[in-house]
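Structure tokens
________________
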Amino acid sequence: MSKITRDFTATTFVVQEDRTLLLRHKKLAAWFPPGGHIDANELPDDAARREVLEESGLVVELISYRSTLGDVGVISQPECILLEDISDDHQHIDLIYFARVIGGTLSVSDREAEGYRWCSSSELESEDIHEDIRRLGQQAIEKVGASESA
């Protein structure tokens, strides 16, 4: 039995005007939200924001906030954590965040993606979008919208 290697990654569903941003991944030829590996010594929520900026040019605010418990810091909590099989012997532990756009200009990195689309909840039902992306994207649109009207 081969040993499984695992990397930590951060993925962010970016929501603006009740739509979430998906990028057409060059290598995988599939639609994904911005995301990537968490660098050594980098906090996961910082990685989530960095990956969005690098891949889309957008500055985002996560909808979960940093806080403290006495003298102890609490980092932004992911919405969920996925275990993704990348190959037979490699997995990603993917921390999923939801965010809203607060700045920047959309400028998709052609190193990573060959296109983009902003999807509404109904547009996420497209057959060319993976089930996990579809459901999490719909949750992000709902949760970010609720947080803005609260």
